[in-house]
Write a structure and sequence with these properties.
Helix content is 53%, strand content 3%. It has 6 helices and 2 strands; from the N terminus they run H-H-H-H-H-H-E-E. Helix 5 packs across helix 6. The longest helix is centred in the middle third of the chain and has 19 residues, at 40-58. It starts with a helix and ends with a strand. The relative contact order is 0.08.
Length: 127
């Protein structure tokens, strides 16, 4: 849509403010698209993203957001775990899942159990 507004300015000499009003979008949104976001928040977020990628690569993709948050805090960043998790999600950084322990004993096998009948009475196995 922003490209359309810019094209109207070039092709028909329609001011951006008027085109934005006609299309129901904010002129600030258009100028932000055109000039880029130069806010301090955006700059900090870009630096934080780079730091998260660096820690993630240094740990070979083994750390998730809680441990990366701890490393960043030790490095002097003031950041929450939720922010780190959101940035990791945006960047498609997924930590390797923990290996689950293989259970070699099957539950319920190898021990005697009383059978239940439909009436709820426990009967002993025949020998």
């Amino acid at each position: 849509m922003a490209e359309f507004i810019a094209a109207q300015r070039v092709r028909y000499a329609i001011p951006q403010a008027r085109a934005c009003r006609a299309l129901g979008v904010s002129p600030a949104w258009f100028y932000k698209w055109r000039d880029g976001d130069r806010s301090p928040r955006h700059a900090r977020r870009a630096q934080l993203t780079a730091a998260i990628r660096q820690v993630f690569a240094a740990r070979n993709g083994m750390y998730g957001s809680p441990r990366i948050t701890d490393d960043l805090r030790e490095a002097g960043w003031r950041v929450s775990e939720k922010t780190v998790a959101a940035i990791m999600r945006e960047q498609h950084l997924v930590a390797r899942a923990k290996k689950r322990r293989k259970h070699t004993t099957r539950q319920g096998k190898g021990r005697w159990r009383a059978r239940r009948t439909w009436s709820g009475v426990i009967s002993l196995p025949a020998r």
